[in-house]
User: What shape does this take?
Amino acid sequence: MVPVDERILSHLRRGTLEYCVLALLRSGPHYGLDIARTLTSGGILMSGEGTLYPLLSRLRKAGLVVTKWQESTSGPPRRYYSLTAEGDKSFEAFNETWTAFRNAVDSALSASHGRSAEPGAESLVNEFRVTPAQDPLSNGES
Assistant: This one.
């Protein structure tokens, strides 16, 4: 694994982790530990389980996921998380926005290395402006 700056990773995770969870749930229901194992592999998206369960709770309260308890053959019942229609809609909006944002960041980084930025990078940056009111997980603060 490439050495990374944990401070930078923390900031990047803050804005994207919930959408990584939504993306994972698009393939079907998952239980918490399964989500944690998937997202912690490699140590980039999540460094531990400590942030996952509060995030899952926020997603549930926002109506983006629903939960269902299921019996397990290997222990106590497990809480499975599934994507709602609203969660799928939220993921789709993020996915479209992410592409524009990623392209703008890549252009800016290319320009900082002396390469010319892709045409339209400025418009891509302006296109990504999202207000806290547009984010279903935001508490309205910026």
Summary: The domain at 6-134 is CATH 1.10.10.10 (Arc Repressor Mutant, subunit A). The longest helix spans residues 85-112. The CA atoms of residues 71 and 104 lie 46 Å apart.
